[in-house]
């Protein structure tokens, strides 16, 4: 098929598939239905490790089942806690952190990520990144909290020093106002002058 | 090295390398120093074809030399004309069109692309794209005309029907106000409902 420009979700996947190598330690900050957790487990291989977070017990259970079916349960630590606490669990530098903001697909729409905790978690993720490591965030402005996250994220990420991080914003210009965006932050391997 | 997030220029190259296959017909709308023309000649292979445009004779000459050195001269048609006339030369559908806006590197900085002609050329390029084909544009807001192009492009591209095209804008948020941006438009293979 070759190159196909699809959605923020696909851009995020593409970056993660290229950035994560066997043996890496990575974080899924929004476990949700576990699809990213599974993909990350596959990418890090038997020597790697995935920390995955969710405040919803249903998400943790579903993800656990999904990993078991695929024989990947031993590569992941599933943590029933808010992602703003990620540094209490993952203390070593990581190659990637992924946020898929918003609510659990098929779940309770009143339970969503919130900017207050998302912003803390993003800061924690930035501090955990290894040189060359990436933070990948999909934001969904189709609901009130998601709209706020999409509005606040550019300000937070723009303020990062370009001697330490590269920050990319990816918008689908003609996809409607509710269209998701994908942000990618890479920690530089050598600080620029 | 794995994934590396660098600049608009690298994003553009990455898309072209993935989207262009041997045998394709493509267009370099801004020949400049010929680096993109050469890369496209390599990508389309001996069965493919590259149309390349520039209004500066120096650019056409330099590019001709570069292609000769690399044994690629027979894959390209170098056209000393403004890119807004591309449909007079390339009448068949193409897989890719690349615009690297601004002035010729190392050349006369008073000779730059201008929105009046750039916008016509972009429209022509959109009409020339095959289904699945891509338009890749790097815009440089570091000078007056470039700034205008960077401001006008989102409006033009946002107005494209999302039943016909996907449009991606890629900005480096913390790279300073003069930082280049990369726009990618893909013509859909099947019109969406």
Quick recap:
The first copy, chain A, has 193 residues and is an alpha/beta fold.
Q: Tags for this entry?
A:
homodimer; 193 residues; alpha/beta; seven-stranded mixed β-sheet; globular
Note down, in words, how this protein is organized.
The structure is a homodimer of 193-residue chains. Chain A has 193 residues and is α/β, with parallel strands linked by helices. Chain A has helices at 8-19, 35-44, 57-69, 86-89, 115-128, 144-158; strands spanning 25-28, 49-54, 76-80, 94-100, 129-139, 165-172, 181-187. Chain A has a 7-stranded mixed sheet with strand order 3-2-1-4-5-7-6, with helices on both faces. In chain A, a hairpin with an 8-residue loop joins strand 6 (165-172) and strand 7 (181-187). The longest helix of chain A has 15 residues, at 144-158. At the A-B interface, helix 1, helix 6 and strand 6 of A face helix 1, helix 6 and strand 6 of B.
Q: Give the oligomeric state of the chains in this entry, treating copies of one chain as homo and distinct chains as hetero.
A: homodimer
Radius of gyration of chain A: 16 Å
Q: Give the percentage of residues in beta strands of chain A.
A: 15-25%
Q: Total number of β-strand segments of chain A?
A: 7
Q: Determine the fraction of residues in helical runs of chain A and give it as a percent range.
A: 25-40%
What form of chain A results from the Cα inertia axes?
globular
Protein chain pair with the most extensive contact, residues per chain: A-B, 33 and 33 residues
Widest sheet: strand ordering of chain A: 3-2-1-4-5-7-6
**N→C terminal distance of chain A:** 41 Å
How does the helix and strand content of chain A classify structurally?
A: alpha/beta
The helix/strand series of chain A, from N terminus to C terminus, equals: HEHEHEHEHEHEE
Please, how many helices of chain A? 6
Major sheet attributes of chain A? 7 strands, mixed
Low-confidence stretches of chain A: none
Mean pLDDT of chain A: 92
